[in-house]
Amino acid sequence: MISAASPWGRFSVLLFSSVWLFLPYLNVVGSGDHASRIAIFLLFVIAFIFAGFISRWLYVCAWLGVLLVNAVYVHIRFHWGLELAESRFEAALSSSLSETSEYVRIYIGRPEALFLLYAGAGIYLLYRILKTPPPTSKMRIVSAGCLILTWLGIFSLRQEVSQFPPASLVSDMFAAKTNLERISQRAGMIRDEIPRPRHCSEDYSKIVVVIGESALRDRMSLYGYTEKTTPFLDSLQPLHFEAIAPSNQTRHAIPLLLTHASVRDFDAFFHSPSLISELKACGYETWWMSNQGGPGLNEAYVAAVAAEADHEFFLRSFDYTHSGYDGELLDTLGKAIVSVRKQAFFIHLRGSHIDYAERYPAGFGLKPGVDIESRYDNSIYYTDSVLSGIFSKFNPEELLFAYVSDHGEVVSNTKYGHGFYPGLQEEYRVPLVLWARKTDRMDSLMSIVDAGKINTESFDRMMEYLTGLENVPGVSRSIKVMDVSPENVVDYDSLARI
Question: Dmax of the chain from CA atoms?
């Protein structure tokens, strides 16, 4: 029997431990260019073995670092697919603690449990390595030279290595962080910019834009759903469009809704003001009211837009344990309304975001919430009651009222949520509702309701037209949508349905 204290004994323990560390990536080795991926796999294993001959503690620290990456890899691979890695990092960095806790509760399951068993076995191997005697000086010198040669080999394959998950996940994380820094800079730029005065229509002294969350129009009776989920909107008889969202992610959808950014030119978001600043420039006092996370690094995309308003109110604020319902915004809204002042309110709901049962008060529902679909319908029903409460606080004669969802939702008892890759049509099928007393410009928009799909990337242009800021509707009929990220643009019609 070979002693673990001998060079060959140490080698065998290090070999087994290093191979064990990279086992999760065997499926990656078998895809793409087999030869280069096998070479990368072997080079990483060899590099770790030589590190173990230099220092036990160096090996342990490096091993645990890769183990942490492995945990992220396993989660993303099994729940979302590696194509979504950067977007998952962005979402994690731009989510509140409460959203994160809900996410963990819903999406942490069997793959993660199996990973804990895998990690436990690996830590036992590390224990075996720490029990071996320290390497000799000769071992260290020879191993250091061999490690340098191994890393030269890895460097020669750096382009391929950048696509190998341990390295690609790290680069995706830094790319997400860089992008969020751009968002922060944009928020500061817009906040410090003084909008030039602009002329707009005097038709509406009050403008209300309600931004829904994860609302699928297919589950709304306004759009023909058999269950009476939107009795208020049904009775209001608003102008409503067969709309598609430009993205299946909130962090991209809201910039696309409220700025001149488009699917083809998302970068416009980083250097242009939103509809909020446009209305502020023509004399409106602007408000951002939200039942989602507060400003800062968390919720960065949305916070950058919210920062343009004269006043910001976050129901959840920094109390991330608060699970308030959207209806709790009504009291603050009522106090903010000043009859003699031009005001524009942007109200960001929690809507129908997972977990659906948490979006409406106990006992409030169209039907018993016995499954995913019924709980989702109840959340739509509750949103409709909130819309009714918002509308009732204004004089209809002076009001321009809009309701649009950031994106849709996949809703079935076997598959639900949003942000899937590849995306599904349900993630983009959203309500777009406009209501105001009749004007020539409203009549002009009415004439295009039945003329085909409308992409809500043009929502800000439509509002600018209705308020007289622009003289053409600027309606986008593009079927181009982002499948998770600005770098991945597809045709809506090419996407599958559940």
Answer: 92
What are the pLDDT digits (tens) for 218-272? 999 999 999 999 999 999 999 999 999 999 988 899 999 999 999 999 999 988 8
Other beta carbons less than 10 A from residue 406's beta carbon: 29
CB environment 315-346: b (16+ within 10 A), e (fewer): bbeeebeeeebbbebbeebeeeeeeeebbbbb
- How far is Cα 105 from Cα 150, in angstroms, rounded to an integer? 42
Helices (H), 223-318: 231-236, 250-258, 275-281, 300-306
Q: Which residues of the chain are in CATH 3.40.720.10 domains?
A: 198-494
**Would you say 215 and 409 are in contact if contact means Cβ atoms under 8 Å apart?**
yes
- Joined tokens for residue 289: 């009211």
Residues with Cβ within 8 Å of 268's Cβ and at least 6 positions away in sequence, in order, are 259, 260, 261, 262
* Helical spans, DSSP H, in 131-247: 137-156, 158-161, 165-192, 231-236
Comparison of pLDDT for 49 and 206, the residue scoring more: 206
Which residue in 313, 469, 338 sits closest to 393, CA to CA?
A: 338
Rounded Cα distance, 24 and 68, in Å: 12
Amino acid sitting at position 337: I
Q: What is the DSSP string of 443-486?
A: HHHHTTTTSS-EEGGGHHHHHHHHTTS-SS---B---EEESSST
The CATH fold assigned to 198-494 is Alkaline Phosphatase, subunit A (3.40.720)
Q: What is the pLDDT of residues 292-312, one digit of tens each?
A: 865 443 467 888 898 899 999
Helix (H, G, I), strand (E, B) or coil at 83: helix
Residue 418: burial class (beta carbons within 10 Å; 0-12, 13-18, 19+): buried
Q: What is the mean pLDDT of residues 359-387?
A: 93
Spatial CB neighbours of 320, under 8 Å, sequence gap ≥ 6: 96, 97, 98, 101, 293
- What are the residues whose beta carbons fall under 8 Å from the beta carbon of 300, sequence distance 6 or more? 93, 94, 180, 183, 184, 187, 251
pTM over 0.85: no
Q: With contact defined as beta carbons under 8 Å apart, do 409 and 352 qualify?
A: yes
| Number of residues that make up the chain | 498
